[in-house]
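Workshop exercise sheet. Pairs work together: one partner reads the sequence aloud, the other fills in the structure field after running the prediction. Swap roles for the next sheet.
Pair: D.N. / O.F.
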Amino acid sequence: MMFKKLVITGFLLVIGISQSALASSDKPLAKWSPDFDPSGAEYTYLLANVSHPAIEGVGVGFRIRDRVWKETGGQLYVDFRPLSQLGGEKDVLRKLKMGAIQGMLCSSVAAANLSPQLGIVNLPYVVDSFDKLDKFRATPELFTPFSECALRQKVRVLDITGYGTYGWASTTPITNLADAKKVNFRIAQAPVNADIYKAWGLKFTALPWPDVPQALQTGVITGLDHSPIVCNITKKFEIAAYFTEVNYAQGLFIHLANERWLKKLPKNLRATLLKVIAEESADTRQRTRIQQQQQIAAAKAAGVTFYQLTDEQKQKLVEMATPVYKRWGEKIGTDYLATVRQQLGH
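Structure field:
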């Protein structure tokens, strides 16, 4: 079953990278065009994302596309649509629940709108490193509840990729928490992020991603809560030339799929699709580690100064976030949150 192109609506949310920011032509996805003709596919998996495949955690969509096509003998076509071609994240989540699309690489901050339990990965110093993310994914006791928490809405979490570790890009140096209190941070438009920054006693403004460049240039914001991968690729470091490695969370893409569609897919094709998604997602998590190192090195070479918070300062952030753990623990499930924190060595 093939799907017609949907009208592009909405705006880039959270981590979306505009076409103009990265495109050197009017066809920014030309290099990712398939080398096969998908018109003969018997089944189509329409997969959406708001961001740009220059980020490894997004580019996985095309790697999944090509492998699934080959391994199903052209029976199943993964029609991957990044760059907000199918709308902003809230709009795409709605389409996913309705079954208008079959899959979505959803940013972790937006995913909590689908189910509060998905917000567990956004809490400070819970799934805060690449190693913890791999352990979270590989441990059924931790990942299975995460995977199944949105089944009441007919959506299943298949896997996880990402865009690096969160920190603070800023126009002035932030070497400690006292420096941070002088900065007005842009944060994602997500309740969990607002709760974190309130608990930390930091100034913040929740802005749509497309508004960030002008806000930085005009001084409306003087800091940016994001990962070095995104900050460097989207040239935010040209204005905010300092980065503090707070490392309080991993920026993630949650691979969501419509459960009803999955169940209707023939068993052999479903098994191949799930196998390829799992293998390519695991590979992409390793690619993201490398990409973060590369982007940090490139940023440093271009003159960006990096700082690290001390262990004592990070522990202070954990202590200040106590109300956040309590509030979101009630939404997520206190026992589940406690199990995750214990298993990951908090």
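Discussion prompt: Residues 1-25 have pLDDT under 50 and may be disordered. What would you look at next?
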